[in-house]
Amino acid sequence: MKKLLTIASVLVGLTISFNLLANSDIHLDHANTDIRNQKSLQNGAQLFMNYCSGCHSLSFMRYKRIGKDLFLGDIVSAYKQAKTNLSNDNPLSHSDLQALSNAIDNPVNNAKEAEKMLNNLSDDVIAENLSKATDEMIKKNLMFNADKVGSPIIATMSKKGAEAWFGTTPPDLSLAARSKGTDWIYTYLRSFYKDDSRPFGVNNKVLANASMPDVLWHLKQSKSTKEFNQDVRDITNFLDYVSEPAKLVRVDLGYKVLGFLFILFILAYLMKKEYWKDVKYGKWRAKD
Predict the structure, then answer these.
(1) Residue 52 is part of a domain; what is its CATH number?
(2) What residue stretches are annotated with the Cytochrome c domain (predicted)?
(3) How far apart are the first and last CA of the chain?
(4) Whether the predicted model's global pTM rises above the 0.85 cut
(5) Is the separation of the CB atoms in 153 and 63 below 8 Å?
(6) pLDDT tens digits, residue range 24-45?
(7) Are 116 and 128 part of one and the same domain?
(8) Is the residue at 16 inside a domain?
(9) Number of folded domains in the chain?
């Protein structure tokens, strides 16, 4: 057993050393992504669908899952705010009426009409309607090459076309953040430079002779450096989420578990002190 552990440790050490040597000449900027930032994930999803989904698939991710994780919360929050305004007889804005229409699954034009319809709906039906509204929003804003919201995200470009134009099939990016790391993706997307010797007139400092064109050139030209970097960070953040969607739940649950264990530790320590009073100062040992 000890021999197997020794061999495994050596192999792990060699793997890490080879990786460090292989990447020692590439400086990677810190992406500083945060998958708990919903606005960043939403912007990253929209940017990816507009600029990347034509060539790259996310075959392990479905549109419906993106809607549920990234957009449903905003639609539910908008409905709750509209319902509060309705209950308090506050003036309803256009967004409030839209939120109430989503919950009712029917257009409403005024507060009385909305209140009357809501009274006839159960909470389960309202939740189902809000989920349906989320699906419709996803279809309208993010789905360009699929018919069903439950479909996986598949690139528009065919494999034959990709091989003819790029010489290879663009990789599926479902697990790119886990295999390459967010720092690599963030630096790669910002490292294109002009090179007339390449077919698309650009090259990349991180991945030399990359077949990919600089698809974000329009963003780079139309925005400030800070804004462009934030857009790239949002795309990277979205790919980090795609590589492990359960991370949203896992991280949140992790904080709760650590908090529970911390409180439990304090209670256990106080209980230990109480129990050991009899041992330290009781009949088994005289008080000093």
Answers:
(1) 1.10.760
(2) 39-243
(3) 50
(4) no
(5) yes
(6) 467 899 999 999 999 999 999 9
(7) yes
(8) no
(9) 2
Phi-psi label, residue 94: left if phi above 0, alpha if psi -120 to 50, beta otherwise: alpha
Q: What is the pLDDT of residue 7?
A: 52
- Two structure tokens written together for 288: 């000093």
Backbone angles phi, psi at 88, to 5 degrees: -90, 10
Residues of the chain with confidence (pLDDT) below 70: 1-25, 280-288
**Residue 231 CB contacts under 8 Å (≥ 6 apart), including other chains:** 43, 47, 216, 219, 223
| Residue 234, both tokens | 């949002």
Whether 79 and 40 share a structural domain: no
For 90, the domain range is 60-154
Pair 100, 127 in one domain: yes
Q: Are 247 and 41 in contact (CB under 8 A)?
A: no
Q: Are strands 192-194 and 202-204 parallel, antiparallel or unpaired?
A: antiparallel
What's the pLDDT at 197? 92
pLDDT digits (tens, 9 = 90+) for 177-201: 999 999 999 999 999 999 999 989 9
Burial 111-150 (b: 16+ CB within 10 A, else e): beebeebbeeeeeeebeebbbebbbebbbeebbeebeebe
